[in-house]
Amino acid sequence: MSAAASPLLEVKGLRMHFPVTEGVLRRRKIGEVKAVDGIDFAIARGDTLGLVGESGCGKTTTGRCILRLERPTGGAILYDGIDLATVERSALRALRRRIQVVYQDPYSSLNPRMKVGEIIGEPIKVHGIERDARRRAARVAELLMLCGLDPSFADRYPHEMSGGQRQRVGIARALALEPEFIICDEAVSALDVSIQAQIVNLLEDLRERLGLTYLFIAHDLSVVRHLCHHVAVMYLGRIVETAPTDEIFDNPLHPYTQALLASVPVPDPDVEAARAFRPVTGEVPSPINPPSGCVFHPRCPIAVEGCRSARPELREVRPGHFVACSEVV
Amino acid sequence: MAALLEVRELRTEFRTGAGLVRAVDGISYTVEPGETVAIVGESGSGKSVSALSILRLVPDPPGRITGGTIRFAGRDLLRLSENEMRQVRGGEIGMVFQEPMTSLNPVLTIGRQITETLEQHRAMDRASAQRRAIELLSLVGIADPERRLRQYPHMLSGGMRQRVMIAIALACEPKLIIADEPTTALDVTIQAQILELMKDLTRRLGVALVVITHNLGVVARYANRVNVMYAGRIVESGSAAAVYRTPQHPYTMALLRSVPRLDRPRRSRLDPIEGQPPDLTRLDRGCSFRPRCRFADEGCAAARPALETAGERDHLAACFRRGALLGAEAAE
């Protein structure tokens, strides 16, 4: 929906339900966690889609399904025409060269016993792209420079670097296989603000220079607004609103999106002093036993009787702006 | 009116394998009764250690408070015995930490953790402590408090646990609460709930609050005054309005410019602070921000600037060029 001409990635009706089991000797399934419960989105080549929402909304699980770290329980993930949800393992290997990931925590996603050069060089070796060690080292140096690090960092260990430098290594590793699509899962969330801005600029430069496409999974709305072309807001396994970035931030229509935006304090005491603010009440319900009808209705300030029974589907209320709420006209 | 808390030249050091780290390197600030003071800074700036030092909770070894005074309600906390200090902690000074799951005892019920505080500090009997615990849980917005008292921390959500932490912090009617990143681990809608609750309660009960945070938006929304820390020192201090409107230290200026803002038009690029925070084992005698500062010159390498008045009363900055930079900034 976000891309008119054949998107690079198209997710259709994606479902990831995890069984909840009980018992040690005989495991019985007693329920399901509907981590992702029927979502659709598309990303055009060269675009960045921001997938936002709070913990447990299913944004990370969605990313894991695209990487096929989980096998989805329903729906299709069309990547350049191939369905990642059902593709054979053998075909998956080739596809993984094209799809890479950058994780949140550069402390735990880099092997502490490997030098930076080995960390970045390993995927090149594993995928048999460059078997010659000298040429591989040259490629690692190139990647380090591309990510704003001195090539001498190849001889360091992750613990000898700062958080921002480590995240640059994580990005260099993701770029090693020359992918076209990168999933950034909270890639800048653990960084201090001054460093965060460096990494945001780096991601933006790389996208332009290398023609990359990003799925940017995050909870920080101000970073998402800065970096993304389109935004999809998730709540309890579903997309409740999606639109081009400026449209969704200037004119949020779903009550949950409005609550999320209002919850972010602006770094300006004058603006904050003038702003009337009441936080949305209640907490996110359990995805094991989600509310009937619209999943947001127990916390929604504008819910009506009908919201308890009917699940609203995404509908286009303005050009390119989709909202799953029956009360939005 | 006398200040409620007066920190003077506080120094806390850590002995590490890499050398001596001056995590808190001579900081001074005051907190008046009932006001909210923010300590803002990035990782490693010393903001959390400064808070732990006030409570004398710095693990020793490797840490040690090596100098300064902490006057609270007329006494120097650094001169109290460990027993006296135990009465201050959780009694006269309430504490709220970032991760409620690790600050609450997992094997005690919520009720027991609140009544324990009351029995310890207030010598209450079980029954009245129980009644007070129910009162406190309602105060922090927990529905059905009688049932919650019988539950264990793992049965509660993150937001609910932080409400319990606030209830415990308030249990003995403290004059001061120290909150270290109280909402960092929480989702944004829950963070908003907890911050509004803390603001409402501190105002209503007249409790002063020292909140340690890295979130510039939280400071803007909730703090009366702010102390900006960098590399173990306070580099700027003043009313939140003055510090945000007319920042006087290049670090504060750069920090405020580096965050993307939802209320401003989108910029094509963010304005980061280049470079990395300094290695605290290798600080020289110059200004610690110098290597990342756009305005630094030779003078900045020769000596470390002291925290001194910059324009308005009570607005201090530790920069040789304080008061002269705003023009330079605007001219660009």
Task: Characterize this entry briefly.
The complex is a heterodimer of chains A (329) and B (332). With 329 residues, chain A is of the alpha/beta class.
Explained architecture:
Chain A has a single domain (9-323), classed as 3-Layer(aba) Sandwich (Rossmann fold), CATH 3.40.50.300. By secondary structure, chain A is of the alpha/beta class. Chain A contains 10 helices and 12 strands. Chain B is an alpha/beta fold. Chain B has 2 domains: 1-92 and 176-193 and 201-260 and 280-307, P-loop containing nucleotide triphosphate hydrolases (Rossmann fold), CATH 3.40.50; 103-171, no CATH class. Chain B has helices at residues 47-54, 82-88, 100-103, 110-122, 126-139, 145-149, 158-170, 188-205, 216-222, 240-245, 250-258, 298-302, 325-331; strands spanning 5-16, 19-31, 36-40, 63-72, 75-76, 93-96, 176-180, 208-213, 225-230, 233-239, 308-309, 316-317. In chain B, strand 4 (63-72) and strand 5 form a beta hairpin. In chain B, helix 7 (158-170) runs parallel beside helix 8 (188-205). The chains are: A alpha/beta (329), B alpha/beta (332). Chains A and B meet through helix 5, helix 6, helix 7, helix 8 and helix 9 of A and helix 8, helix 9, helix 10 and helix 11 of B.
